[in-house]
Amino acid sequence: MAKTGRRPGPTETRAHILAAARAQFGAHGYDGATIRGIAGEAGVNPSLVHHFFGSKDQVFAAALDFPVDPGALVATILAGPRAQVGERLLRMFLALWGAPEPSKAFLALIRSVSTNEQAADLLRQFLERAVLGRVTEALGVPRLRATALAAHLVGLAMVRYVVRVEPLASAPDEELIAVVAPVLQHYLEG
Amino acid sequence: MAKTGRRPGPTETRAHILAAARAQFGAHGYDGATIRGIAGEAGVNPSLVHHFFGSKDQVFAAALDFPVDPGALVATILAGPRAQVGERLLRMFLALWGAPEPSKAFLALIRSVSTNEQAADLLRQFLERAVLGRVTEALGVPRLRATALAAHLVGLAMVRYVVRVEPLASAPDEELIAVVAPVLQHYLEG
DNA sequence: GTCTATAATCGGATAGAC
DNA sequence: GTCTATCCGATTATAGAC
Fold first, then answer.
1. Distance, CA of A190 to CA of A168 (rounded, Å)
2. What percent of chain A has pLDDT over 90?
């Protein structure tokens, strides 16, 4: 029984590169990460990265195309008593940052936002459309309050996951929820 | 009347370079800013930057040694009715970001935090000692709540001054205070 | 004190053999 | 599909003339 036809193919390699890219962009940001570094972590030749994605920009875009459906998230957040929307929103946020794949993409995004215009646009759009637009529309929250709420979440990400300031960095989810959820709820009740 | 002796000297040049450094680090972050760019903006030769400061790291450190006395800030925040500490804290924050020199230093810091360990340490220390330490000590606020409050301020800086998401980016100070100050106050009242 | 010139690296991207 | 070799631009940093 001889094997014929094409062998397993490159599908695997591409995925390796993508995973390595997420890790590198997450660790060093857009500017800090290098094609060589990504290739090194993936165990392949730097040229292959170009071969599969074309340019550094495109690798970045592919790495950020996170495995998350904003629509589903919002649906989950909105499903349930209105008095606990803040808590569900925060739980969702913490769950995303706790999951391996999305957290790497988010980390890459937030690490790159400061110096990369492309990343800043992405975050702006993500906040505007995926989160603020829908939630404010559904709940009738004034735009400014919603943006302030988003700012708090961004700050939480920065302090807890990027700069890692204690005790916020190692606080258990539940403790954090007890402290922060009421504040988010307050913003939603304008 | 012939001019004799040494001319005005380098004092001025050094200050020019420092101002240019603050602007460049603020605009592009640590990694994005270049010695050449700083020298260009200051109207001097790149070598001079090395001459005065030694290395890029040291220029960065000098640029971040902001013209602000944390002790005085805290004193101002604590002076007055306890029920308005949140508001005074926020006013101070907005005033600092509104002033030209400190705002450039802060921008440089926050733009560099994501990718530069030195900057991350600096922010951590600044939050810990200059702000959290003193305020929590003086008011008896639990550490976790204080850190959450700091996170909110960091997020505000990111969204309002770095990524510039509307309507938060262009909202007048007073509107912002009306929305956000009560939240800060809530954190302070455990 | 200020400049020119240049050394030493490093990173992204491409060409082309296998 | 995967590799080697290489080009090209940009950057930090230094040596040394004036």
1. 27
2. 72
How much is the average pLDDT of A152-161? 97
Domains A11-64 and A70-188 share a fold: no
Domain boundaries, chain A: 11-64, 70-188
* CATH placement of domain A70-188: 1.10.357.10
Q: Using the CA of B57, which nucleotide's C1' is the nearest one?
A: D12
User: Count of A–B CB contacts within 8 Å?
Assistant: 148
Rg, chain A, Cα only: 19
Q: Which residue of chain B is at minimal alpha-carbon distance from A180?
A: B148
Q: How many residues are there in chain A?
A: 190
From B95, B37, B77, B50, select the one nearest B184 (Cα to Cα). B77
CB B66 within 8 A of CB B100: no
Report the CATH superfamily, name and number, of domain A11-64: Homeodomain-like (1.10.10.60)
Whether A131 has its CB under 8 Å from any CB of chain B: the answer is: no
Whether B76 shows a pLDDT value over 80: the answer reads: yes
**Local confidence band at A108 (pLDDT 50, 70, 90 cut-offs):** very high
Q: Give per-residue pLDDT as tens, B151-171.
A: 999 999 999 999 999 999 999
Which has more confidence, B8 or B84? B84
Does residue A186 sit at the B interface (CB-CB below 8 Å)?
Answer: yes
When scoring B107, B111, B113, B114 by the number of chain A Cβ atoms within 10 A, the one with the most, hence best to mutate, is B114
Q: Measuring from the CA of residue A33 to each C1', which nucleotide is nearest?
A: C11
Q: Which residues contact A163 (CB under 8 A, 6 or more apart)?
A: B113, B120, B123, B124
Per-residue tokens: B30: 């640590």
Per CB-CB distance under 8 Å, the chain B contacts of A114 are 29, 110-115, 162
Interchain proximity A167–B151, CB inside 8 Å: no
Are B41 and B49 in contact by the 8 Å Cβ rule? The answer is no
> For residue B188, what is the nearest residue in chain A, using CA coordinates?
A179
